[in-house]
Amino acid sequence: MEVTTMFAVVRTGGKQYRVAAGDKIAVEKLAGEAGDTVTLGDVLLAGEGDKIADASKVAVSAEIIAQAKSEKVVVFKKRRRHNYRRKAGHRQQLTLLRITAVGDSKAEKKAAPKKEEAKAAPAKEEAAPKKAAPAKKAAPAAKADTAEKKPAAKKAAPKKEGATDKAPAKKAPAKKAEKK
Predict the structure, then answer these.
(1) 160 lies in some domain
(2) Burial per residue of 127-156, b for 16 or more beta-carbon CB atoms within 10 angstroms, e otherwise
């Protein structure tokens, strides 16, 4: 008997990747740190061996191995006979992923609530400080009274007599008397 593993074609960062559980791939930068788990949601095709499965029911989960940079690409521009040369380098940001599971999204959703319960407990603790926030809103109202008392606007410095906004005009040189 042949043992076949499920594969999927996913799209991320404008590119498509054929992945299976255990694969390591380098994709365009994704948000997250090493050790975080991400779900690649845009599944284009899924299958097992020669059989094609419904891609809408398949989820691909991956673990971020590292955030890295690709090899340097040198960009060199030159125009002949015009003394024009520009050299620049670029290193694209990448995320290295290890595909942990390719399978039914139903199985993924059953495992996800356990993680959500763990995350929900800290969220309840965060909700308590939010209730204290309305008390803080009363303080800005008190500040509004002080904000109404605006300091007097600065007055412009008094102008000296004969002073104008414009620079003094240049006088035309006096014409010399014509020689007779």
Answers:
(1) no
(2) eeeeeeeeeeeeeeeeeeeeeeeeeeeeee
